[in-house]
Specification:
heterodimer; A: mainly alpha; globular; B: alpha+beta; about 35% helix; elongated
């Protein structure tokens, strides 16, 4: 890994408060108001969670989908740094940032979702090694720390020089702190690359562990899960789908960011990258379809139930159609069709996680069927909006993106 | 070196696959859990219960639960099927199965519902902090001081028992039957419901003795009972046991497998994480790959 990339902050090249950013801010404020309501009236006041449906949209989307879609971070890191495909370097930093922010917001969503938010530290003290959730929580926690370590070079690169100078005419304690900080950052900037391999590999290992762990969560409730999704290989399906969605997520994010900041997109890298997705998505699809055939439950897809249709949508639109699309060079080499294929894969994984956590979950004594409330939707939308704003803020002030030559019009 | 690396890769891959798939061969080695041998239990004889709701009232009192909207002597409550909740750890439901009594009236069957206190509880296996534990005396005990409110216990429970205080913003608790843990920890102590039952439909005692008692009752009065002790085998056995005149499926009981619920997840977990062999192997494998691929790069063979 090269210590200094071609990445540069976007500050000065474009304005921060675009119309899109303002919409995101509005969504974030709306979500925040519902969070306040949750801490006044309890989960019951803003959610449709019930005694029969203890997990809802926040677990299905904010947590399970959020973790899956952050897989771009470890898949690109593995590709560029472990398998030595250094041509993909320009997309590693943005994917890393997406993963970092993704995990921070997964954690925040969990804080809101758990009943005793203030007790979130307790799994660090009280261990239950039998619990899948304990394993997932530990991995997510350590991996979030690893992501911060992996992102540290970006901060060090930006602030290793000139940080002190900007504070030169302040009083001496400020200057002393600035000097210490600059010394530390300069040290990190020089030496981080020597130990970074440990973090990169650890990141991939931890990701494999908790991506599959998320799939094991519902295996503890075999009698409550619809047969289309209840399979012993559910952890493997979660892992392979997370790996498969990594590069499409990079395409999705890169296209959005290029459009939003009016930058040159990185089509040459992206079109080469999604050739690997054909293999990865193919593996996931083969396992997924092979599984329902091998277990003999495939006729349930066509029984006319909500579950059957939801499964069909997940496989058809999330796996089969984008996979066929990606086979064509015309799709891979053009921005719009490639973006559509990437959206389908990303959407397919979100539908899969919602199917597993919400649609497949069939309590024996349903109090009421679950459908997310306005409050739940608003908080989820708010979290996604804050995540996008934080991404925008970071690439604005830190060297994350590599604007490929083209001067953006401000 | 090349051969070694390939062999290592193959072995690791095969082992990872076996771990991920949870091969049964690993299962016995991976799961060492034994249910408590001296667990207490309760045997409920549904053919005796008259649906007086005295057990509900006793439960309410000994657990200091809030006064219900409708009093315990109001039997019209039984017109609806109810579930235990945050404010009632046990409820009686009434079923008409088509059976008629000696006066040709529709004969009701009353079913007491509460936490079954599984021998190998899914909730305790699932709980992220181990707030739920199976105690040697049989109770599945909830320690609120550890709970973070993730509600995975509610997801895991096959009987849909743990209930949540959704309207408490900061300190909600998981609520369920405690098996009167403090009471049965004292010599001669019984759960509130078993103590009060006026028709002795609930028998408290050692679980192993209760199974014998249930089979004795069946042998003594052939034809009175279904030939099944519900809870003897279900989900690996439960501390609460039922015998019934009516088929269990007709009076609200779930048909459940005899395999304990945590079997598959714990097999996978312990298969992968014993001595952290799988994560460490993967780390070594990726480290090797990184060294190999990046050496090529240093030799100017940067492929992309």
């Amino acid at each position: 890994m090269s210590a200094h990339s071609h990445a540069a902050p976007l500050q000065g090249k474009t304005r921060f408060w675009s119309p899109g950013a303002l919409v995101m801010a509005a969504l974030a404020i709306t979500g925040f108001m519902f969070v306040v309501a949750r801490y006044i009236g309890g989960l019951g006041a803003v959610t449709h969670l019930s005694q029969s449906h203890p997990w809802g949209l926040w677990i299905g989307v904010d947590v399970a989908s959020g973790v899956a879609l952050a897989a771009g971070g470890f898949t690109t890191a593995a590709l560029a740094h472990i398998f030595g495909r250094h041509a993909y370097e320009p997309v590693v930093r943005p994917a890393l940032l997406t993963a970092l922010l993704g995990y921070v917001f997964v954690s925040l969503a969990l804080v809101v979702d758990i009943g005793r938010s203030w007790a979130i530290w307790k799994p660090m003290i009280f261990w239950n090694p039998n619990s899948v959730l304990f394993e997932v929580a530990m991995c997510v926690m350590i991996y979030t720390a690893v992501l911060h370590a992996e992102f540290l070079p970006v901060v060090a690169e930006r602030f290793a020089h000139g940080f002190k100078a900007s504070l030169a005419n302040r009083s001496w304690p400020v200057v002393a702190v600035a000097e210490a900080a600059e010394g530390l950052l300069a040290f990190l900037n020089r030496n981080l690359s020597k130990v970074m391999w440990v973090f990169i590999i650890a990141g991939v290992v931890l990701s494999c562990m908790h991506q599959s762990g998320l799939g094991s969560l519902l295996l503890v409730a075999p009698t409550k899960m619809h047969a289309l999704w209840y399979t012993p290989i559910l952890p493997l399906l979660f892992l392979t789908s997370a790996i498969a969605v990594g590069f499409p997520m990079v395409v999705f994010e890169n296209t959005l960011v290029s459009a939003s900041f009016d930058l040159e997109d990185e089509m040459d890298i992206l079109s080469r990258m999604v050739r690997i997705t054909i293999v990865l998505l193919g593996i996931y699809g083969a396992l997924k379809i092979g599984d329902v055939i091998a277990r003999g439950v495939w006729p349930l897809i066509f029984d006319g139930s909500v579950q059957g249709r939801s499964f069909a949508v997940e496989v058809l639109f999330g796996i089969v159609i984008p996979w066929v699309m990606l086979l064509f060079p015309k799709v891979r080499n053009h921005r719009t069709p490639l973006f559509i294929a990437a959206c389908l894969v990303v959407g397919g994984v979100i539908v899969n996680r919602m199917n597993v956590f919400l649609v497949a979950f069939q309590p024996p004594y349903p109090v009421q069927s679950y459908f997310p409330s306005v409050g739940e939707l608003a908080i989820t939308a708010g979290f996604i909006a804050i995540l996008m704003l934080a991404y925008r803020f970071t690439v604005y002030y830190l060297p994350v993106l590599s604007p490929a030559g083209k001067e953006a019009n401000s | 070196m090349e051969l070694n690396r390939r062999r290592f890769l193959g072995l690791t891959g095969a082992a990872l696959g076996a771990g991920a798939l949870g091969k049964p061969s690993r299962a016995s080695a991976a799961r060492a859990y034994q249910p408590p041998p001296d667990a207490y239990g309760c045997l409920v004889d549904l053919s005796v219960c008259v649906g007086c709701r005295k057990c509900e009232q006793a439960c309410n009192q000994v657990n200091h639960l809030p006064e219900p909207e409708r009093p315990f002597d109001d039997l019209t409550v039984l017109d609806d099927k109810r579930r235990p909740g945050p404010e009632a750890f046990t409820v009686i439901n009434r079923y008409y199965t088509g059976r008629r009594d000696e006066r040709n009236q529709m004969a009701p069957t009353f079913v007491k519902v509460q936490c079954m206190h599984c021998q190998d509880p899914a909730c305790a296996s699932a709980c992220i902090v181990g707030a739920l534990t199976k105690k040697p005396n049989g109770a599945v005990h909830y320690d609120v001081s550890k709970c973070i409110g993730c509600r995975y216990c509610m997801v895991a429970c096959p009987f849909q028992i743990p209930a949540y205080e959704y309207h408490d913003p900061l300190t909600p608790r998981v609520r369920k039957c405690t098996f009167c843990f403090e009471r049965i920890s004292q010599a001669g102590g019984k759960p509130g419901c078993a103590q009060v039952c006026p028709v002795e439909a609930i028998t408290f005692g050692k679980r192993s003795e209760l199974i014998k008692l249930a089979k004795q009752k069946m042998a003594d009065d052939p034809g009175r009972y279904q030939p099944q002790v519900y809870g003897e085998k279900e989900v690996g056995g439960t501390s609460w046991l039922y015998i019934s005149r009516e088929p269990f499926a007709k009076v609200g009981f779930l048909k459940l497998p005899s395999q304990p619920m945590p079997h598959l997840t714990e097999t996978i977990q312990h298969g992968i994480f014993s001595y952290m062999w799988a994560p460490l192997s993967l780390f070594a494998l990726l480290g090797g790959a990184m060294a190999v691929f990046n050496r090529k790069r240093d030799q100017g063979e940067d492929r992309s």
